[in-house]
Amino acid sequence: MDAAGIDVQVLTLTAPAVQQLEAPEAIRIARESNDYLAAAIKRHPERLAGFATLPTAAPDAAAGELERMVREHGFKGGHIDGHTRGRYLDDRFFSPVLERAQQLDVPIYLHPTQPPQPVVDAYYSGFAPAVTNALSQYAWGWHIDTAVHILRMIVGGTFDRFPRLQIIIGHMGEALPFMLQRIDRSLPMSLTKLERPVVAYMRENVNYTFSGLNYTSTFLDLYLEVGADRIMFSADYPYSPMSQARGFLDRIPVSPADKEKIAHGNAERLLRL
After folding, report:
1. Maximum separation of any 2 CA atoms in the chain, in Å
2. CA dist 155 to 72, 187, 240, Å?
3. Can you give the chain as a three-state secondary structure string?
4. Which positions are annotated as active-site residues?
5. What pLDDT digit, counting tens, does each position of 135-182 carry?
6. pLDDT given for residue 37 in this prediction
7. How far is CA 82 from CA 54, 169, 269, 271, in A?
8. CB-based contact 107:101 (threshold 8 Å)
9. Among 101, 217, 231, which Cα is nearest to 159's?
10. How far apart are CA 180 and CA 173, in angstroms?
11. Which of these, 62, 95, 67, lies nearest to 81 by C-alpha position?
12. Phi/psi at 43 (nearest 5 deg)?
């Protein structure tokens, strides 16, 4: 962090987290990992912050764990690693944890995970195992699965039920910005019966981070579609070097005022850092 000129990092349990586990094991590992992270933050409170790992297989327990970590340990939000064994957050099964996040006024970081196995089998099989693995995950599949997850939440009325809920996604928007206008035109309010246009939810309930996609053209697409107030710097460490992310931040072609928002201002506001 010092070498890259990064003052504060928000940490969480990395993939695959606990979303694919049975409820009792997910609850146990979530609590253990959250307590481990809380101890690390306590040693470096000026440099580290945390997102709570949430055992979504047990939504009431996940809601309680989010509240415990926010109120007792000052965590800045929750972390969910994609679908929960094929169930997405538009499912009302997950309402307790989303409602608690809104009550606590903290965001949820929706991190990618591998698509459900039937999707992997249908879309990504038939190649060498290493190719299937890459294609179904970090090269394409888990980004698109996260984009679908967000669209399901929007079209499923999640943000009408929880209008103040804030979600964070990485990788410059998981391909959504490129399709944003097409999606909005193809899903008018007359069809969706939602309270707002689809694009409004993407610009008012979703926040976006760099998360290792240090590409100027990709950034500019996101910037032009959602504006500087919705974008946050992130390094995606340890998968991408901090110095690479910081160098990219220094080079993005925006005004100094917008760069300050992206570098730290938006995170300070959203996460109350």
Report:
1. 53
2. 34, 9, 33
3. CCCCCCCCEEECCCCCCCCCCCHHHHHHHHHHHHHHHHHHHHHCCCCEEEEEECCCCCHHHHHHHHHHHHHHHCCCEEEEECCECCECCCCHHHHHHHHHHHHHCCCEEEECCCCCHHHHHHHHCCCCHHHHHHHHCCCCHHHHHHHHHHHHHHHCCHHHHCCCCCEEECHHHCCHHHHHHHHHHHCCHHHHCCCCCHHHHHHHCEEEECCCCCCHHHHHHHHHHHCHHHEECCCCCCCCCHHHHHHHHHHCCCCHHHHHHHHHHHHHHHHCC
4. 236
5. 999 999 999 999 999 999 999 999 999 999 999 999 999 999 999 999
6. 98
7. 11, 10, 25, 21
8. yes
9. 101
10. 10
11. 62
12. -75, -25
pLDDT score, position 162: 98
Residues 95 and 101: their CA atoms lie apart, in Å, by 10
d(C-alpha 266, C-alpha 229), whole Å = 6
Q: Residue 93: left if φ>0, alpha if ψ -120 to 50, beta else—which one?
A: alpha
Give residues with Cβ within 8 angstroms of 233, minimum separation 6. 209, 210, 245, 249, 262, 263, 264, 267
Which residue type, as a one-letter code, is found at position 10?
Answer: V
The verdict on whether omega for the bond into residue 238 sits within 30 degrees of 0, i.e. cis, is yes
Q: What are phi and psi of 207, to 5 degrees?
A: -120, 155
Structural tokens at position 269: 């506001």
Whether 259 contacts 232, CB under 8 Å: no
The domain defined by 43-271 folds into TIM Barrel (3.20.20)
Model pTM?
0.97
Sign of CA dihedral 169, 172, 178, 184: positive
Q: Which residues of the chain carry a pLDDT beneath 50? A: none
